[in-house]
Amino acid sequence: MRYPFALSLLLSASVVHACRMVVADPVYDLVVSVRPADRIISVAGSAVIPSQKATQTTLCFQLAQQIKNLRMEVVSPPSAAGSLSPKMINNNGLGSGNWSAEFLSPIPAGAPVTIKFSYDGGDQTAFVFHIGDGGSYACGSDIAWYPEFGTASTTGKYSVEGNGQVVGEVAYVIPSDLQIVANGRKSEPTVSGATQTVKYVMEHASALSFVIDKFRVLHGTGKTPVSLYLKSDLGGDEAYITGIQRVLDLLTTIYGTFPFPDFSLVELSDKAVEGAGFGGAGCAGFMMSTTSFLDQGFNYAFFGHEIGHQWWGNLVTHGPEKEGDDLLDEALAQYGSLYCIEHLIGPDAAMRYRTIGYPGYVPTQNGLNYLNMSAAGFDHELENLDASNPLAHELACEKGFLVFDQLRRELGDETFHRGLKSVTKDYAFRSIALSEFKKEIEKAAHQDLGWFWDQWLKRKGAPHLWAEWSQKQDSVVGKVHQSGAAYRLHVPISVISSDGCVMTVRVGLSGPSAGFRLSTKGVVTSVLIDPNFEVLHYTPELEERAKAMLPATKFEWTMFSGDTNAAALLADGLKACVSPDRYGVAFRLHYYRARGLYLAGKYDDAAHEIVLALEGASRNEPQVPGCYQLMSNIYAGLKDLDRARWAAKAALLTEKQLGQYTGVSKSMEAWLKSHTSAL
C-alpha cells in the first residue's frame, strides 16, 4: 500500500527546499536481526539513493513510527558527509511515520547519496507488522519497517511518498530453531550457536518482506513451484497446493508470466495478527494468511485476490501521483479474484460474487454493498482515491473490480488481457501512472476509451436504469431508460415467458433511452434488466433497497472505520426501522448489537438481541449462518449447551441451504464434535 501526497516544490535559484522524487530504485545493504522472544528488530546498513535532477537540501523518508535509537549519517558525497538529525513530523495512522532531516550542505544535482543508518524497534504491532512469539513478520508495501526515501509535501499535512521498491542484499539474523520466508534469491543459512544468518539478494526491485516462525514445510510441483509453510494441520494440505496451482495457472493467462521463480503460502497464527489489521497479505513471491482463515478450507476468491497482488502491487507498482491509488493494485487483484471464481467455480458463483459477495470472503466487497455505500454518501471517484483512507481500499474492491470486469466485457477477454499483459511486461519491477495504464489498454483495444474512463473513473455512483415494455402478438417491444448523466452501456435484457422460455438481448444505451424488440411465441410474464448483474447499476428496486438500508450501512461503515459514533448510530438505526422491514435492517442491527455485547461478556443481553435478530420478519440470508454461530457461542457462554447445540446445527443447516461451506460450518462442526456424539 502506498500513501498519497500533494507535491509542492519551493524553488530558490537552483536549490529545491523540498524533496524530489527518486527516479530510480535505491540500493540497500542491510543486516536485520530479529529476536522474537524479546520483541526486538534491529536494523543496520546503508542505502544508495540515486541522483536527482536538482539540488537537494532535505532528506525525506517514511519509517515506522515506533523506531528507537535512530542514527543516520551521510557517507557520500563528501561535501555533505556527517551525522543527520532526523525527526518524525507525523504518522500515516497505519504505523509508518513521515520523517525529514536537513543535509549538512546541499546535495548537488546529479550526485547520488549514500546514507548509513541503524535503529531498533518491534515492541508494537502495526499494520502487517509484528515481532514476537507466534510469528514475526513485516510487509514493506504496507509499513515502512526500513527507510523508504522519496518525495514529500510541504503544504497541508506533511506526508512522504517513500520508494519501498529496492534492490540489494539483506542478511537476516534469526534464532537457529526458526525458519524464514522472505523475498529475493536465498542463500544457505550460516549457523553460529543460537543464531543463523540467511542472506537474500534482490535482483529486481521489490518491497522487503519477511515471515519468521517454526513451520511444517511442504513442496508441490507444477509450472510454478508451490510451497506451504504451515503451523497447523489444515486437514487437506494437497487441496491447498492444488488450489494455489490452479489459481496461478489461470492468472498467468490474463496477467502474463508469473514474475517470481516460485510461490509460497505462509501461515500466521491468529495471535500474531491481533491488532495488525489484516487477514491476508500478498508480498513478492509469497503470501501470508491467518490460521482461522485457512482453517475454513481453500477459498478461491481470497487466493485469487492475494495471488493477483504478485502482479499488481509487487511486479507492477503505482507511481507517486494520486491518480490510480488502489485502482491499479487492489481493484486489479480483485478483478483476478472474480475471474478465478467465474472460470474455476462457475458463472453462477461469479454472479453471486458480483451481487452479494462470495461465501467465506469479505462480505462487503460486492456490487450491492457498493450501491448501499454510495447511497449513504460513502463514495468517491475511482480515479483519485486517497489510499490513506480505508474507504479507498473498500471502493476499489466493491466497485473498481466490477469496472474492470465491465471493461473486459466491452473489449472482449483476449483484447483486455492483452492490454494487461503488455503492462506487466513493459512495466515489470517499476511503477506505472494511471495515464500510462490507460494508454496500454487503449493500444491493445485500438480505440480511444476516454468515454469509458470518464463515466466509470471520474464519476461517483452508478447508472440508474429501468425498463418499460408491452407485448404485441408475437413480439415484445420496450425501452430501457437511464436517469441523470448518461452512461454508454450494453445492457442485457431478459424476456421471460409463461412457458419458462428466457430470451436475452443486449441493448446499446448511450442516451436517455434505447428501444428493443424480441419475437416470442409465449405470453411474456416479465422483463428483467441485467438479471446476472453484469453491469453495475441501480434499478428502482435497488434504489429502494439502498435507501431502506441507510441505518445499517451507516453503522457498518462507521464501525469498520473505527468512528466513535458507531454506537449512537446503532441505537438511532434501530429507532428508525420501519415496518414492513423488507430488507432485514433490524436483523442486521440487532445482530451487530448482539455481537458487541457478546464480545463484552454480557451474554444475557447478547442472547436477548440475537433472538430479536432471528425473530425479525425479514433477514439478510447470507448473514444468517453467522448469526446462528454467534447464538451458539452466546449460549455456550451461558452454559446452556442444549440451546448452543441447537444453534450450531441451525448454522450448519442454513449454510447448506445457501449452498455454501465456510468457516462457520467448520467451526460449528468442530464444536459439536467436542460437545455431542451426533451431528
Helix-strand category = alpha+beta
Count of strand segments: 33
Mean pLDDT: 91
What share of residues are in beta strands? 25-35%
Helix content: 25-40%
Point out poorly predicted stretches.
Answer: 1-23
How far the N terminus sits from the C terminus, by CA atoms, comes to 44 Å
Count of separate DSSP helical elements: 18
Overall 3D shape: globular
Give a concise summary:
The protein is α+β, with helices and mostly antiparallel strands and 679 residues long. The protein has 18 helices and 33 strands.
Write up this protein.
This protein has 679 residues and is α+β, with helices and mostly antiparallel strands. The chain contains 18 helices and 33 strands. The strands form seven sheets. Strands 3, 4, 6, 7, 10, 15, 17, 18 and 19 form a nine-stranded mixed β-sheet that branches. Strand 3 and strand 4 form a beta hairpin. The chain is globular. The N terminus is likely disordered.
Which SSEs are present, and which pair or pack?
Elements lengths: L10 E2 L2 E2 L10 E9 L4 E10 L5 E10 L3 E9 L5 E2 L3 E5 L4 E12 L5 E9 L7 E2 L5 E4 L8 E5 L7 E3 L2 E11 L3 E4 L2 E2 L3 E3 L2 E13 L1 E5 L2 E5 L5 E5 L6 H19 L7 E6 L11 E4 L2 E5 H4 L5 H9 L7 E3 L8 H19 L1 H9 L11 H9 L14 H22 L1 H14 L3 E3 L1 H12 L4 H8 L6 E9 L2 E9 L5 E9 L4 E8 L3 E7 L4 E6 L10 H9 L1 H11 L5 H11 L8 H15 L3 H12 L9 H14 L3 H17 L5 H13 L4
Parallel strand pairs: 2-5, 3-15, 22-23, 23-25, 26-27
Antiparallel strand pairs: 1-2, 3-4, 4-10, 5-9, 5-13, 6-7, 6-10, 8-9, 11-12, 12-20, 13-14, 15-19, 16-20, 17-19, 18-19, 21-22, 24-25, 28-29, 29-32, 30-31, 30-33
Helix pairs in contact: 1-3, 1-4, 3-4, 4-5, 4-7, 6-11, 6-12, 7-8, 8-9, 12-13, 14-15, 14-16, 15-16, 16-17, 16-18, 17-18
